[in-house]
Amino acid sequence: MRYKSILLFGAPGSGKGTQGKAIGSLPGFFHCACxxxxxxxxxxSAIGKLFARYSSSGGLVPDELTVDxxxxxxxxxxxxxKFNPQTDILLLDGIPRTVEQAQxxxxxxxxxxxxxxxxxxxxxxxxxxxxxxxxxxxxxDTNEEVIRYRMEVYEELTRPVLEFYPRTRIVRVNxxxxxxxxxxxxxxxxxxxxx
Length: 195
Prior knowledge:
Blueprint: E1 3-9, H1 16-24, E2 29-33, H2 34-39, H3 46-57, H4 63-79, E3 89-93, H5 99-104, E4 109-118, H6 122-136, H7 144-158, E5 170-174, H8 179-190
Parallel strand pairs: 1-3, 1-4, 2-3, 4-5
Helix pairs in contact: 1-8, 6-7
């Protein structure tokens, strides 16, 4: 079975997690933040140590490992009754992050839309990530050099994912505005999916 999905897409700090939580709280949507899945791993486990190594440097965890962990996690949520694949739309935040991940996931997800949160001001993104670091103790948000490297990785490996999907499914949203305005735009953009 392919999960009906919406991709929350954008650079680090563009608001994917914030908007995913907001939309995921609405009936019929289920937010899946891949970064949260990795951060919830036992830091002493082999995969937890591997994630820590990649995230502290700003790199991406290898594609097959990422997709395998995602598959296991979503299946566990479905088995536990947290996520209902028959009725819920999966909001994917932070996956797929590369074209290879998108290819690996073709048999798993039916992408109804890609919400592209556009925030082109790099300095604003850095400021957002530093504010997030102060609240959530995320090591990958504290070092400006790591943040700038993550932006380079995004441009090189993640932005091309947009070209993997039909342009007609991409909804661009200006994410430089206040959170509430962005959320209102998303709710309006996604209303057609629930009809």
